Predict the structure.
Amino acid sequence: MLPTRQGSFRLFRFLSIDVHVHWSWFVIAAYQFLQRQHLYHDPLWSVAEYMALFGIVLMHEFGHALACRQTGGFANQIVLWPFGGVAYVSPPERPGAQLWSIAAGPLVNVVLMPVFVALYWWALQNGVAEARPDLHRFLEALLWINGILLVFNLLPVYPLDGGQILRSLLWFACGRGRSLQIAAIVGLVGGAGLTAYALFAGSIWMALLTLFLLANCWQGLKRSRQLIEIDRLRV
Ligand SMILES: [Zn+2]
């Protein structure tokens, strides 16, 4: 149930990787602009905030794609769709290659963190909050955007990066089928918890996202049974 390029258009090509953007990103952009423009004196900073979100998600996806290529895999497309970005990566069928291709995405956010912390620290030290409050708020937003993306992506809910990292680590110990099965079950439990939280918090968007995660876990569980069967017949 991966998102397709349907409803998206090619924005540009970089390092032989096509970057597609789904039309819904513009709806999200308008929504975010309306939600956050009052936080700034100059609403253009709200646009800059959205562009920063776009840029950070894109760098994260390029992390996946370039790491995948490094392992000898295939990666030529990134799609930014309603629930974030997706790098279409096909690393070789080895746990180490899968692990590096997945871990490289959140690693980009880890590398960005000290940069944003340093910028915010600089702002605090130089009285930017009083002199240029919009810039101060923007730098604060960068920290939050990057931090939330990092933490959310590392949740061990398949197919989020955290869930896929868990699967790759388990693969070393118990094979590709069983590792996917365990990761999918952990994902179903975690996804159910997230759905409950989304309903409690009254967030329709998050509820839809969690349903997407649960559907992927279910697909993963079915796929794991096939893999276990194939590997059993091979022995
Ligand atoms: Zn990722």
